[in-house]
User: Fold this.
Amino acid sequence: MGSARALRDVCRIPCRRNERRAQPLCGKRHATRGALRRKGANFAATFGCETAQYWREASVGLNTPAYFFAKAIADMPFTFLHTLCIWAPFVSIFVTPMPQGEVFFSLWLLLTFGAASGYFLSFFIPYGYCGLVSVVWSVWWCLLFSGMTIGIHDMPQLKFMFYSSPPRWYAEGFFYASTVIPYKKVRYGPTKGDIWLKVSLARMQQSMAFHQTFWQSMGWMFLSICCLTLINLFCITTTRLDKKV
Assistant:
């Protein structure tokens, strides 16, 4: 009776514009993969299109770390604008109880990972093939190691890949902010504060191993991006040394 009353109270309350219904995580997964694929392909040009110039300047004493960070910092405004261009139409059609600021911040981190991925690919792949390889890269992280298509419990021997995947932390943060917080307890009406979907949410969290809060997930996502940035710096510094003399 208590659960039925809680559900009735929730259904009786007029929904706000951004609380009409929760979109499935699968839709978010496809949007994530598309954004990451395009971002990686676009920002592969940052270093991929200047390989010859970089080798020439490096041979006469160019400071590689300074060059790398200068180029990465110069790309940050473009990442912000790309995020804005995706976020603006996204929040107008995608129904979610998440605050719009959190949606923007998570998208910005995701696209920052996409930019870092483009840098990484351009160090090893000819620029003409970076677009195709970006598709494979996005499928690798957004499908195989996002924690939604294949659960971490299904491949426990690859936990490190799941934990180092920014799209997984993106999905976990989105799940917490759009599902756990809004629907764990009744937020309005006479039964406000009563348990509503606690059992169902606990099962979902256990099956997908999504236990972190939104900001904890964003923190791990930021740490993963920092690690990839350091890997990029190592790669550009230590590869093709024969071209830099």
